[in-house]
Amino acid sequence: MTKRNIITWGVLMILTVIAGLVSSASIPFLIPIILLLACLKIMGVTFSFMEMRKANPFWKVLIVGYLILFCGITLIALGMG
Alpha carbon 12 to chain centroid distance? Predict the structure, then answer.
């Protein structure tokens, strides 16, 4: 594994722990926070481990656009958007 992959893995583990701690707390905007953490983890996996960093810009825009659309629709469906 490269140094970048190890750092990404560490950040993913930290984000997972934070999501677990936040999910058991009683704080406002709980769902958007967890959704944001999940999107950050998806971006980390996609651009680091799936090598999307080297891909055609079309695919990068498609991935980021999908995440924005997914998060937006989810928040609207839950009445938080």
Answer: 9
Closest to 3 in 3D by CA, of 48, 38, 53: 48
pTM exceeding 0.90: no
Contact present, 49 and 8 (Cβ < 8 Å): yes
Quote the domain boundaries for residue 20.
3-77
Spell out, as residue ranges, where the chain has pLDDT lower than 70. 81
Choose among 11, 55, 18, 54: nearest CA to 34: 18
Q: How many domains does the chain have?
A: 1
In the numeric block, the tokens 């999307």 are attached to 52
Q: Residue 17: its pLDDT value, please?
A: 96
What pLDDT score does 29 carry? 87
